[in-house]
Amino acid sequence: MNGPNGFNGRDFSTGNPGLDFVITFLQGRVQRVRSGELDRGASAVEWVIISAVVVAIVGAVAAIINAALDKGATKVGECIEGADAGSTC
C-alpha cells in the first residue's frame, strides 16, 4: 500500500469513497504540519498581541498628555479671567 499507487501516492482507491476522502484529508493535514504552514497562524497571533500592547501604550501616553494639557489650559483660563492691566500670572 505504500508504493507509487498506495496510500502515499496520489492515485489510490480503497473502493470506499468515504474512506478515500478521510485518507486524503488526513494526508493533507500531515503534509500541512510537516511543511510548517501552521507557523503562519502563530505569527499572526504574535502580531495581534504586539499590536494590542502598542495600542495600550499609546492610549496610556495619550491619557497622560491629555491630563497635562487640560491642567495647563485650566491654569491659563483662570489667569485670563483674573487678569488686569497691572498683574501677571
Automatic annotation (TrEMBL):
What keywords are assigned to this protein? Membrane, Transmembrane, Transmembrane helix
Transmembrane portions of the chain: 47-69
Q: Which protein are we looking at?
A: Integral membrane protein
Native organism: Streptomyces alboniger
